[in-house]
Amino acid sequence: MTRPEDVMESYLAEVAGRLIGPARARRDILAELAAGIADAADAHAAAGMDPVQAAHAAVAEFGGPDQVAGGFRAELAAAQARRTALTVLTSGPLIGALWVGAALAAGIDARPIPPWHWAGLPAGARPAVHLAMIALAIAIAGTLFTLATTGRLARWLPARPLATAAIAVGGTAPIDITLVTLFAAQMAGAPGRLAVLPAAAATASLGRLAFTARTARDRLIARGGGAPARQ
Fold this sequence. Notes:
Layout: H1 4-16, H2 23-46, H3 51-62, H4 65-71, H5 73-106, H6 126-149, H7 161-189, H8 196-224
Helix pairs in contact: 1-2, 1-3, 1-4, 2-3, 5-6, 5-7, 5-8, 6-7, 7-8
């Protein structure tokens, strides 16, 4: 026997399957939606409608699952982008500090201006270091702009939060690839010697590269309207 709760839960499950974004934001949306449907069903039941029919009438008032999920797309995109930008912002100084510590331990060039490099850095690797510095500037700009467009300045700034968040994350990829490659080259030149700081820095950079790949995948899913990113 169908219960009013079954009707509402089935509808909410269909909507949930179409929501793409951070788990917390999705939970808040579903809780708000559930409360609204319950109130509407109670109003129909108070008017003399059968409880099950009242539940069906309530979900019909809210529209189809695709339509409802689409109405929250911008909100979820902003939440997803802000979370991504905050991850980049908080991880950047930590990973940077690890690499600086690794460079100091290995002995860096005496010049007090960037780009610093390790002793014995191959000449061919220097253009990659310069490109990594440019990527760093792009990542910082993308991060700050994403935070601005998903915060208090949102009403005054043109907002494409997922795009700018993707730029922020994408800007970190050349940095991590360059640093990990340099680390691998140094390890190849000194087999059997694995310093703790460089190893920790390389591990952190590899973790951020994995985050970059997952963010790119989630962005493609969001654009295609596929399954939500479970985070």
